[in-house]
Amino acid sequence: MNKILRNISVTAILSATAAGLWLYAQDQSTFRVKVELVVLSFAVTDNKGKYVNGLKPSDLVIYEDDIRQKMATFTEGNRAPLQVLDNGETRPLRTTGSSAGDNGSGVVDLRSNATGTNVFVLFDTSNYMYRGFVYASDAIADFIRGLDRADSIAVYTYSRNLNRAVPLNRDRTTAIAGLRKAVAGDDSALYNCLLLTLRDAAKVPGRKVVIVFSNGPDNASMVAPDDVRAVAEDEGIPIYVISTSEVTKDPISSNIFKRISNNTGGKSYFAKTWQKQVEAFESIREDLGNSYTVTYYPQPNPNEGFRRIRVELTSEAVKKYKVRARPGYRPQRGI
């Protein structure tokens, strides 16, 4: 296989996801577009904001630039992923044999379809956090304790630099112990550190999310927030943001947080008190447990830029519901 060269851009910082890569050659003499197995997480809610559970692959269709996609796997919450057959029926995921969910070699890549969610918590330990540091740490610890046991957790902290306090694992005691060692101080380089966190998350197969706990302003980053958002979109990593600052007091950061979360399929919360922070984490935990995840290998598409993703509910009984998902991604290109 020819060596793939990435564009020189912020998005080029990320390592390629380890799941089933293949090349779509539009013009072999000029360039190739590298298309990965797309992992798409989304939530479905009714008109009262309550989660809609029990949907099946036959209840929805995935479009990419209005091109209908063929689902490889389908997962609800933290249940085991199911393989989606040509007729829309599902069965337990197989590890061998030619099938709708294989990667072209006759083998299904289970690494990208593992049960549970890989959760990366990025905790603000800058000098903005002096006043509410202990309360924030308690809220994060409660969140870790309440995660589904199928989930994995990594705890990162940041001020001017990123500290990978606890690598991704399923040991809640280890995660909380690492969290408690954090100390506050120094300037805030949120977007630099968020980009590095996304880079780490992108290396992990399967479903992953990043949860940012921030007290607001960034005064030390060299990376623009919209570049970070674009990376998260392309990698399919929802970003949840919990900010302790009031929206009216820091409208610039608040608007950035909203844009980053909305465009990656996550949510943003503005929780000034400890109780509101706990409620925000409970909301995220509920979101993770009630979301759907599908994977698909994109159909041939000449679009080299931003590809829009649309999840369309098909049956009359569910058409009225609302879907929250990332709007799309950009395929990686190489010479």
What does this structure look like?
This protein is an alpha+beta fold and 335 residues long. The chain folds into two domains: 10-77 and 80-114 and 292-334, no CATH class; 118-290, von Willebrand factor, type A domain (Rossmann fold), CATH 3.40.50. It has six helices and 19 strands. The chain has a six-stranded antiparallel sheet with strand order 8-7-6-15-3-17, with helices on one face. A hairpin with a 5-residue loop joins β6 and β7. The longest helix has 17 residues, at 274-290. The two termini are 12 Å apart.
Topology overview:
Blueprint: E1 22-27, E2 31-35, E3 38-45, E4 60-64, E5 67-68, E6 71-76, E7 82-84, E8 90-92, E9 118-124, H1 133-146, E10 152-158, E11 162-169, H2 172-180, H3 190-202, E12 208-214, H4 225-235, E13 239-243, H5 251-262, E14 268-270, H6 274-290, E15 292-296, E16 307-313, E17 322-325, E18 328-329, E19 332-334
Parallel strand pairs: 9-10, 9-12, 12-13, 13-14
Antiparallel strand pairs: 1-2, 2-19, 3-15, 3-17, 4-5, 4-16, 6-7, 6-15, 7-8, 10-11, 16-18
